[in-house]
Write a structure and sequence with these properties.
Two copies of one chain form a homodimer. Chain A is of the alpha/beta class. Helices cover about 40% and strands about 10% of the residues of chain A. Chains A, B: Keywords: 4Fe-4S, Iron, Iron-sulfur, Lyase, Metal-binding, S-adenosyl-L-methionine, Thiamine biosynthesis, Zinc.
């Protein structure tokens, strides 16, 4: 079998390594490989699945150096800064003495005993001085793209997507795609988010329960990316929020997103009315200096929209949205995020932090979907998107929420119109409210549909949605469910690489190559264990039947007989086939009517 | 709170019983209730969920007498024949001496030692003499509907759906709906399948592995209906196939479907070419006499279509389809099912067995979707649908399979056109091939979409699809995933009862009525256990926050504050709300800016 590719172009030359297994899962037959770029310091990681019949299938790889046995990793030291040379080479940024880290940043009382000791231990790997655009200039991929410059980051992402660097540059320049890459996150393996590219998946982590430790959050991040998360949002609240984020960033090969408002609220002890532009801006700068790649900003929640939610079935369900609504009410003033948006743009542009304009008024129930409050805010997000682009800031727009199937198209069509095709980044949407415990499924349905219709990135939902904090298994279930939704959308959008992946697996299935079928699946460990529950013996891995029907009822074996008779080698024309039928059936009878292939031994 | 209804109309009068728990799950707060019909022998079972604040939500109930503590059940005796009076009352059927049960019926050698003893033990409850239409007349719900007769079965189904009996009669008469109800299955609680009604879900069971016992299959059936399966197909093969079916039928409150070809193949020892119309007809009559309500018949697999599959990625994946293809090739003759279809119609009409015309050439991979072979067969199914209706036989059409999202609409639109809107009964469809182990999800996505567009019944897919036989947990996961897909479609079709269910749960969520939220969900046990993992304490069940965000970040609590201020009682107009804002925010400040409700103690 010849080498098949998916989510990447044909591979000119590459190295393969025997697969590593940080997760303790059984052997997957997944091999780390690299696609060479136009320059020696640009090698794009891929996952190679070697087929038992020879050849391999190359898949998009989000797992970072952790799955490369040649690269030693240590979460206490962080990942190598692969982008450093590119950033320095552009010569348009400068190091500066950053904002001093304060005890409050970690939710500790100012001057608390041990606070400073705690801060010394923020990240044992030590942190670099922060970097920003010289004289506060915009150093964003959008600014470069507009000037016609194709960056190394764009080339990297283009190879991953199997498109030309120029295509990536064009989409970013038009505001139809973003490449989130803070100059202070050099460990990043660049990727692009836009409807012209493969649909992406975000996984949320965060220690809102004091229980979960810093190492746990880092481990959740690497676990999520191993199963295919393209970006990770750190939604931590409470203690050690700054420290947790530092560890996550220094160890993350994927873009990291945050909601700065959460940390700002911690700094004012959870009293929304005490929030101020000054506290918020200070928090944003703190996070820009750490290397956060994109930030959710709920600047579309305007004072006059708040009453629109009063008669809703479930009011405001966005944390950020409800916090901003509370602030607006407390002061009876317009949102400080809206009023200071231009200044916020200049800050983000100088670090190349991407906006994820939050939908603070998204519906929290089927009854509230596509209502006046939601669409009023969406139109304001469209206005803010234009302002952000003028300031050279890359921008995504966040979407719902809970939306029944028949209202999904209307929702994304309006977003694409009022936001000038800016990448849509949707949570689900959930297509019904009645299945707590299964909201990865209620939302996976909506996610697949809205991605087919143009959503660029899907925010995963885990089985614990509405009920509790996702554990390691929930994170895996959420990521795989959303990879299914994203891939189903890629197929529906006619992506050739996506189709090749399905074809490779279906070929393996039809040819009873069980090992290949397992290894080509999104979750080989689960596929293999389900198979082995009924047919554990090794021979069953090559048997020309399976436990569902047994030998007598195996339709695929009968099909092989048919294919054999009628030259199913795709060479035969319908006419040849038709003509040969009678003769064939005589041979067939003479041969004892054996339509089954002999069992493999 | 006033009583809310879903999937049923307002309830005139009813009894409630304390809930039983055959499944060993924790207490659900589910209560068996009944809706009175127009006659004393017609009581429609419902599930009542009592709300902590008073009132209840009434839901469609497929679980049969097993969940009624007032009704003693014994699987060795079978269920009470609730339909018997209705069937006898029509006076158009007659008892007759049925076909003698033979050892071969159970896959035993003719005259084998112990064969007869085995047959004596077929079903300890003993079986009635079979019944059929006098002089072989059509005694189908279709025949009655066409004559303008509204049967008790139609009235029963109408009450379940919350529509008028006349609506049910009209849809059946037009061939747009079926009410599968063999006169030899008097234990049945009638239900209707059609796009004007609630979307239904079928669960497959069957002991293809010799391992699973008769009791296990009966238990799988009751388990599946408990979680919401509307019909069950017994796909047993191998030994004790007749006996297993007898036990399942005598204990089933839902319609039972089969694929007679499987048993016929057993009778000729698995040699497809030795099948004959005589063996097949004998098997069909055997199953009609037992009370099978609908039968999958692959009469659309024509000799000339077989070569169309030769160049497919995955050939023929339907067991029945591949068996018939093998037979056609072996004899180079047209299918005996197609050639004897009229006689088959007369047999089914005299027992009121519903056709489920099988799609033997459905695609088994994304690459084969909507191809020439599939659509050629579909057009033949349209022709057979017309013949069946002429003979008074109720008919459904089976659908794919593996179909990418962008080809689903084309698929169902063609089915509705060529089959004159006959109920479509689809397996999934699966929207990608790459996730073995998660095909309940890959197919749940396609199922929700195709149901929204008009599919009347969905055949579930379990996580074991392609890999092994579903166990008890897989059956539950498959049924609940498909209930989600069916309900999401009911919402998208604008079903008011479906919306009331979501509203009831969202009200409970917004009002922090955790117990109600659990009990209103499709799977209270799972929802409760996920919640308790992070907040196990009883007080947490009434806490005005949850473990996701904690008190400080609870958007819903903030929303309550907003709703309180702006008269969120749905009474206030936007103007009143707007006008009151400034004043309100002053009060709000005066009150210490408390947007949070006090915690419940």
């Amino acid at each position: 079998m010849t080498s098949q590719q998916s989510r990447t172009p044909e591979n000119p030359s590459s190295e393969n390594h025997s697969p590593e297994n940080p997760s303790g899962e059984p052997e997957f037959g997944w091999h780390k490989g690299y696609l060479d770029g136009p320059r020696p310091d640009l090698r794009v990681p891929v996952r190679r699945v070697h087929l038992t019949g020879g050849g391999s299938v190359t898949l998009y790889d989000t797992s970072g150096p952790y799955t490369d046995p040649q690269v030693p990793t240590d979460v206490r030291r962080g990942l190598a800064p692969v982008r450093e040379g590119w950033i320095l080479g552009r010569g348009d940024t400068e190091e500066y003495e950053g904002r001093p880290v304060r005890p409050e940043d970690d939710g500790l009382r100012a001057g608390a005993r041990g606070a400073l000791r705690n801060l010394d231990a923020v990240f044992p790997g030590g942190s670099r001085p922060p970097r920003r655009g010289r004289g506060g200039r915009a150093v964003s991929q959008l600014a470069y793209a507009r000037r016609g410059e194709t960056t190394a980051e764009m080339e990297f992402a283009a190879i991953r997507e199997g498109v030309s660097p120029e295509t990536v540059r064009e989409e970013i320049a038009a505001g139809r795609a973003v490449l989130p890459a803070n100059v202070n996150h050099p460990e990043l393996e660049p990727m692009v988010i836009g409807k012209r590219f493969l649909v992406k998946v975000n996984a949320n982590i965060g220690n809102s329960a004091v229980t979960s430790s810093i190492e746990e959050e880092v481990e959740k991040m690497t676990w999520a990316t191993r199963w295919g998360a393209d970006t990770v949002m750190d939604l931590s609240t409470g203690r050690n929020i700054h420290t947790t984020r530092e560890w996550v960033l220094r160890n993350s090969p994927v873009p990291i997103g945050t909601v700065p408002l959460y940390q700002a609220l911690e700094k004012v002890d959870g009293r929304a009315e005490e929030l101020s532009w000054e506290v918020y801006r200070d928090t944003v700068i703190e996070q820009c200096e750490q290397g956060v790649d994109y930030m959710t900003v709920h600047a579309g929640v305007l004072l006059r929209y708040v009453p629109l939610t009063a008669r809703r079935k479930t009011g405001i369900v966005s944390r950020g949205g409800s916090i901003m609504a509370a602030w607006c009410l407390a002061h009876h003033r317009e949102s400080f995020l809206y009023e200071n948006f231009a200044e916020l743009c200049d800050i983000l542009a100088s670090y190349d932090v991407t906006f994820s304009l939050g939908d603070g008024l998204r519906p929290g129930s089927i009854a509230d979907a596509n209502d006046e409050a939601q669409f009023a805010e969406l139109r304001t997000l469209g206005e803010l998107n234009r302002v952000a682009k003028e300031h050279g800031v890359q921008t995504m727009i966040e979407g719902p929420g809970h939306v029944p199937m028949h209202k999904i198209k209307e929702n994304i069509d309006l977003q694409q119109e009022v936001c000038e095709e800016a990448p849509f980044y949707t949570l689900g949407p959930l297509t019904t409210d009645i299945a707590p415990g299964y909201d990865h499924i209620t939302s996976g349905i909506g996610a697949a549909m809205i991605a087919w219709w143009g959503t660029a990135m899907l925010c995963y939902v885990t089985p614990k949605e509405h009920l509790g904090l996702p554990d390691r298994d929930d994170v895996k279930t959420g990521v795989i469910t959303y990879r299914i939704a994203a891939h189903a959308a890629d197929l529906a959008k006619g992506h050739e690489g996506a189709q090749r992946w399905d074809d490779a697996l279906s070929d393996a299935r039809f040819e009873f190559r069980w090992e290949d079928q397992f290894n080509l699946s999104l979750d080989p460990a689960t596929a293999r264990s389900f198979h082995d529950e009924t047919l554990p013996a090794e021979p069953a891995k090559t048997a020309h039947f399976c436990s569902m029907c047994g030998p007598k009822f195996c339709s695929m074996k009968i099909s092989h007989g048919i294919a054999e008779q009628f030259g199913g080698d795709a060479g035969a024309t319908p006419e040849e086939v038709e003509a040969g039928m009678l003769k064939k059936s005589e041979e067939f009878a003479a041969a004892g009517n054996r339509v089954y292939l002999p069992l493999a031994d």
